[in-house]
Amino acid sequence: MDWTLERVPGGAYRETIIDLRKIVFAGENPEKQNPDYWNWEFDQNFFGRAEISAALNGSALVGHYALIPQRYRVRGESLTAGLAVDAMVHPQRRRKGLFSSLQDYSLSHTDLAFAIGYTIRKEVLPAELKGGYRIVGKAPVFVYPIRFEAVARRLIPAASTAHAAAGLARRLHGLFFPFRRRENGFVFRHVERLSPHLAGFFENQKRDAEIFLEKSAEYVDWRIDRIPGVLYDRVIALDDEGRTAGYAVFRRELLFGLDALAVVDLETADGSVDSCDWMVRFVLARARELGCDCAAMLLLDGGPLRRRLKRAGFLKSPYAFNLIVHNCGRGDTAGAFKRSKRIRLNWSDTDML
How far apart are CA 181 and CA 281, in angstroms? Predict the structure, then answer.
């Protein structure tokens, strides 16, 4: 081996970490190359500073693995986990066992209860599973097609076949999932900052999920309102007494080659079917208003929101992330995830979007 492994103070290596990211993830998530974004994600993380493990060849950074603290409610117990992000190996050091060594080092030198990750790259999954991660679920991306030809062209290579398929799909989708604007008791309002409208929201929120990220108004202030260089559309839903009954956070993004309105986060106060239905319909109206190809949402949820997405006409796309969990503490958290049918996670709980 021509490298050493050690835990490093992130700030001291910030520039070299960003330089390595530019090589490994060239063209992906350009906002993550911004030092302000790096500070926000790693040094100013709401639940505590990230744990950063590095592979060094002398003074040169050739590998990087980070765990960002997050707090989860797991079947009634509050546990601090590490979101595994930015696992990077310099191209000249690949296929030498560095990724596995760095992953093992990071996971064996932490006091976090468990590590969690979302992986879609098939080439890294075998090494993650070999290192002790377990696949505990699939986090699919649900898509509501608006411009059918654009969606069909992305999924079906032949242009003529895609055109014909789009026409048929449009008619069938309209037949089974007619889009209607429904009147309801909510007033939707766009806001510049979301957190001031969420006082007491999460404390009084009705949830049926067994596993979810512990959110608060202060957490939303960090995650949504103070994220550098990212433009979010924030909307609150007010009930007839002026209370916040729900909220949605969007970002217009190029996803899988499609102009998509990505739903980063969506919550309702009472978790009812009607509240979820109204919020979903607002999402679709907004996507149509902007002229997007589709609306999209990553969601691992067996509750009312997922049911309303499917009833509204959202379709499970071919794209799904493997939700992986590694037991770092004494308990079998991975087993708890695996056994649970009521896990609630979405894009805002990841380091994406």
Answer: 7
Decide if 314 contacts 345 (C-beta within 8 A): no
Q: Please name which of 250, 254, 259, 255 lies closest in space to residue 231, comparing C-alpha atoms.
A: 250
pLDDT tens across 3-53, in order? 999 999 878 899 999 999 999 998 888 899 999 999 999 999 999 999 999
| pLDDT digit string, tens, across residues 300-334 | 987 788 888 888 889 998 899 999 999 998 789 99
| φ and ψ at residue 109, rounded to 5 degrees | -120, 40
- Residue 166: Cβ within 10 Å count: 20
Determine the length of the chain.
353
Give the whole-angstrom CA distance, residue 194 versus residue 342: 26
Residue 227, CA distances (Å) to 40, 232, 279, 282 in order: 7, 9, 24, 24
- Can you say how many angstroms the Cα of residue 220 is from the centroid of all Cα atoms in its chain? 14
Q: Closest Cα to residue 65, out of 95, 39, 103?
A: 103
Tokens of 94: 């690949």
What is the reported pTM? 0.90
